[in-house]
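Thread: quick sanity check before group meeting

JM: Hey all, I'm pulling together slides for Thursday and realized we never actually wrote out the predicted structure for the chain we discussed last week. Dropping the sequence here so it's in one place. If anyone has concerns about the input, flag it before I start.
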Amino acid sequence: MQKRIQRAVSILAVFFVLSTGAAVWACSNMGPDKHVGMVKAIDLKEGVLTLIDAETGKPLQFATSASLLKGVKVQDKAVVTFKSEGERLVAKELVVR
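JM (edit): ok, ran it. Output follows.
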């Protein structure tokens, strides 16, 4: 009986995550050096991507190259893999969902 309950809870949890979409993404669940959120602004001239962090709701700015920003639009949901260079966050990879 307990296994049936655990299975049912697992199925409901998967259903919930899939039905709510990207809003349930959290950076802490993505692993180290990743942030997840919605693209708020793109500055091609300065090479800066601003992302509204899904976990904290705060804006984060990433230094990036024009090649990483190709095809990215404001309001896209994105996962940014980054490295820290002092106070600066530098995007190494950008995946739009």
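AS: nice. Confidence is low (pLDDT under 50) at residues 12-25. The first strand starts at residue 34 and ends at 43.
JM: adding both to the slides.
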